[in-house]
């Protein structure tokens, strides 16, 4: 018997390859085996997802600092956490498209021509995952410039904020889903407060990692908020630039209506 991944010889009793570490798979991919694999990797209580999720709520420094220091098996890796967050975000986007209209989406919808509101509405859905990804470097740079007692590298801040923003998205998923199902007109009203809470959670995580004194932490939190606000505005500007460059929007779309 040989390993299907690295093609090295295995013994008949091997459960894992001693060369590459891959799990030995002998069974065909039936629905039963597929269900078992998914439950083992994501939803099993012994799996690291629930441990990671719980620790990121109360002690985010345990997960983030451990991964940066080289611990790889105790918690779910950041890319897998991000994958779960993007999957759940996709479900939210799907439900939003079913229950919301441009007028409900834009607080200023009545001030926009119907055609322009429709273009923006569809484009925001198309680029929603990209927006989420762009938040990561924005928050990482803000954290790097404000909270860095441990001298993390910028790349390590990227890892930290993959965890932080993915955690926030996963945590918010059931709340967002319930609001969309039972009170869709309130969803946009909810989104702005949650944005500030997300920034607050980011500051909480940074403070748990770096442990500044109260006065210093407060000043750094204010600076962090200013930097993330600038980055948020920058993402919006970039979105409109892309819309104009691709021809989705044109200047006459914003001309005063007669």
UniProtKB/TrEMBL annotation:
Transmembrane domains' residue ranges: 75-96, 127-147, 159-184, 190-209, 221-243
Keyword Transmembrane helix belongs to the record: yes
One Pfam family from the record: DUF3667
Superkingdom of the organism of origin: Bacteria
Keyword Transmembrane tagged: yes
Xref: InterPro entries: DUF3667
The entry's keywords: Membrane, Transmembrane, Transmembrane helix
Protein's name in the database: DUF3667 domain-containing protein
Source organism of the structure: Muriicola marianensis
